[in-house]
């Protein structure tokens, strides 16, 4: 028996995601699941399972669209990502840089979405024509505001972003993911993805090892470093 293509729909609007999920299943024959981004444990669990494609709302809070796209890429998943782009969009360049495979405007037709899904699943990329027309101005804006990657004088030492620095300092205070999310006002999924990236960059196997690495590099300037 053929395995159905599995699509996860992340969207801030419940009616939108439920209707889109129903269309994908009833009209196109996909196995489609609507995902509430606020249910972080379920969302993270679904991402760790097999999914062929994510339809991802670009306007999810806390920059979550970028974080989810980056998580798919960093975990080396085979999952494709199409972002659904509202008018007055933001963070699109970041999503593309993180590994997006397609961009479809939310006001596009269902036929255009159908075409985008088919092409992306075949290994191609897709971008709505109107989005291409505004990409250059957004790329310039993104380049101006891009966060410098620093925190080391030695190019041989892994570089962490400012947000990863903050999280590593909080890890040194033995704070849980939930406590870090509350302190930084971000989602639990965002914290988990940052921790995953820190461990990958530092090539360590645990939070404790990451903190010890940072202590040896004299990175923990403001944190109260927890002692074993």
Structural account:
There is one protein chain. This protein is an alpha/beta fold and 228 residues long. The protein has ten helices and six strands. The chain has helices at 14-26, 40-48, 64-74, 92-98, 110-121, 129-145, 162-171, 177-184, 188-202, 207-216, and strands at residues 6-10, 31-35, 53-57, 80-85, 102-105, 126-127. It has a six-stranded parallel β-sheet, with helices on both faces. Helix 3 (64-74) packs parallel to helix 4, helix 3 packs parallel to helix 9 and helix 8 packs across helix 9 (188-202). The longest helix has 17 residues, at 129-145. The radius of gyration is 19 Å and the shape is elongated. The termini are far apart. The model is unreliable at 147-153 and 222-228 (pLDDT under 50).
In short:
With 228 residues, the chain is an alpha/beta fold.
Set out the fold topology.
Blueprint: E1 6-10, H1 14-26, E2 31-35, H2 40-48, E3 53-57, H3 64-74, E4 80-85, H4 92-98, E5 102-105, H5 110-121, E6 126-127, H6 129-145, H7 162-171, H8 177-184, H9 188-202, H10 207-216
Parallel strand pairs: 1-2, 1-3, 3-4, 4-5, 5-6
Tally of alpha and pi helices: 10
Helix content: 40-55%
Tertiary shape: elongated
- Regarding quaternary structure, what we see is single chain
Radius of gyration: 19 Å
Which stretches are low in confidence, meaning pLDDT under 50 for 5 or more residues running?
Answer: 147-153, 222-228
**Beta strand count:** 6
- Widest β-sheet, arrangement of strands: 2-1-3-4-5-6
Secondary structure category: alpha/beta
Give the overall pLDDT as a whole number.
Answer: 80
Strand content: 5-15%
- Biggest β-sheet strands, sense, barrel: 6 strands, parallel
């Amino acid at each position: 028996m053929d395995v159905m293509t599995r699509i996860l729909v992340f969207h801030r609007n419940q009616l939108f995601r439920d209707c889109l999920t129903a269309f994908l299943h009833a009209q196109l024959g996909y196995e489609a699941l609507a995902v509430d981004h606020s249910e972080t444990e379920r969302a993270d669990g679904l991402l760790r399972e097999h999914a062929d494609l994510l339809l991802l709302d670009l306007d999810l809070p806390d920059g979550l669209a970028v974080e989810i796209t980056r998580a798919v890429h960093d975990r080396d998943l085979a999952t494709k990502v199409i972002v659904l782009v509202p008018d007055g969009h933001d963070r699109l360049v970041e999503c593309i840089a993180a590994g997006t495979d397609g961009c479809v405007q939310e006001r596009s037709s269902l036929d255009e979405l159908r075409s985008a899904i088919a092409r992306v699943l075949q290994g191609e990329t897709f971008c709505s024509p109107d989005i291409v027309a505004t990409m250059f101005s957004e790329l310039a804006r993104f380049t101006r505001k891009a966060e410098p990657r620093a925190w080391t004088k030695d190019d041989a030492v892994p570089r962490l972003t400012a947000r990863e620095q903050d999280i590593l300092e909080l890890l040194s205070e033995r704070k849980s993911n939930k406590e870090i999310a509350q302190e930084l006002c971000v989602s639990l999924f965002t914290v988990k993805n940052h921790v995953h990236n820190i461990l990958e960059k530092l090539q360590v196997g645990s939070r404790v090892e990451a903190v010890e690495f940072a202590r040896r590099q004299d990175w923990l300037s403001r944190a109260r470093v927890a002692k074993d």
